[in-house]
Amino acid sequence: MKKEIDKINERNARVEADKAWETSIIRRAIIAVLTYIIIVIFLMIIHAPVPG
């Protein structure tokens, strides 16, 4: 019984850590920066005119 409770507590700790990462500001910033970089590279590849 004790082992089962320990396993559940370990699983809960992992789930909480995953949830914290999913909602973190750092994760959102990383996604935003990578998206921007990918868009810039794509626009450079297709030789899009520079807005201005």
Q: What's the structural blueprint in terms of helices and strands?
A:
Layout: H1 2-22, H2 25-45
What does this structure look like?
The protein has about 50 residues and is mostly helical. The protein has a domain at about 15-50. It contains two helices and no strands. The chain has helices spanning about 1-20, 25-45. The protein is rod-shaped, with a radius of gyration of 21 Å.
Short description:
Helix content is 81%, strand content 0%. It is mainly alpha-helical.
Kindly name the structural category.
mainly alpha
How far is the first residue's CA from the last residue's CA?
A: 68 Å
Please tell me what the overall shape is: rod-shaped
Number of helices: 2
Q: What is the number of E strands? A: 0
> Which spans of ≥5 residues are poorly predicted at pLDDT below 50?
none
Provide the helix percentage. over 70%
Beta-strand percentage range: under 5%
- Describe the largest sheet: none
Taking all Cα atoms into account, the compactness measure Rg is 21 Å
Helix-strand pattern: HH
Determine the mean pLDDT. Answer: 92
Main attributes of the structure:
mainly alpha; 52 residues; rod-shaped; 2 helices
